[in-house]
Amino acid sequence: MISLHFFKQEDLSDVNYTLDKIQSKYTSTAELALTRIKDRNTGLEHPVTIFRNEKPVGFFTLDFGEDKMDLTDNQNSVLLRSLSVSPHMQGRGIGKSAMIEVDGFIRANFRDCDEIVLAVNQNNISAYELYLKVGYQYDGKTRMGRSGPQYLMHKKL
After folding, report:
1. Which of 40, 41, 64, 50 minimizes the C-alpha distance to 6?
2. How large is the average pLDDT for residues 70-94?
3. Alpha-carbon distance values, 55 to 8, 49, 108, 139 (Å)
């Protein structure tokens, strides 16, 4: 069973996994994402741990800061960033389940939020297809990311 909880420092040892060279092009490790949150120091980005059967197996952040405005005009949106699943747990539907669970997690914890936005690298076909399967839409908008062009996707809550 997959569940989502706000990140706690004791989760770090389980989510501090190394991503392979290809995955590292498309997402950040939990450690790097946490460092960026600390550096930005806006108080508007919330790290989240993905649990499978009560064991931490993945990570992402929910960013309510101004970066989301590069993807939407909706002030009540959130930018989903830095999604990853532990390499030894991949291929088990954890990412898909987490992206289904995130809707309820946001509704329960951020009542004013009515949209999730994200950017996915055009070469990261498996992630793009995952987002489509769980209800994200691509309306033809793109931007240049650190590893090439990205599709801008969104999902209304």
Report:
1. 50
2. 96
3. 13, 10, 22, 36
